[in-house]
Structures are given as C-alpha cells and as structure tokens.
Model the fold of this input.
Amino acid sequence: MYEFSWFGSSRYIAAAIYGMDSVTKDRELFQNLLDFTGNTLFNLSVISLVIGVLYLVVGEVINTLYFKNRNKGNGQM
Done:
C-alpha cells in the first residue's frame, strides 16, 4: 500500500509522540512504533478527504441550483 506524504505524516507524528518516553532512540524502535500505529490513521485520513471533497461538490451543486431557480423567478438571467 502506498502512503502519500500528506496522509502518512499522521502515523509518523503518532509514533513520535508514543515513543517520547523511551530512553533509547534508534531506527528499529521507531520502525516498531510505526508498525504498532498501523494503518488506521491513514485510512481515516483518506476517508476524511473523500467526505470533505464530496461535501464541497454537493454544496456547490446545491448552491448553483438554488441561485439558478431563484434568478429564474425574478425574470433575471
């Protein structure tokens, strides 16, 4: 699974926060912390993006239809 830098950054932040109490700071520990966080944050980020884009598109369509019908009743173009 490919991780885009926009969405994957939440995993790195979560792993860094989770590993703050650790005495040793090495690559293997950080990799284990990344594995521990899993893909849940990535999946939720993608779902949030899709919902946000759909919200904007539906809002624009409704807004366009509303003003189109409103202007039609006033005799304006």
Observations:
- The chain has a mean pLDDT of 81.
- DSSP finds three helices and no strands in the chain.
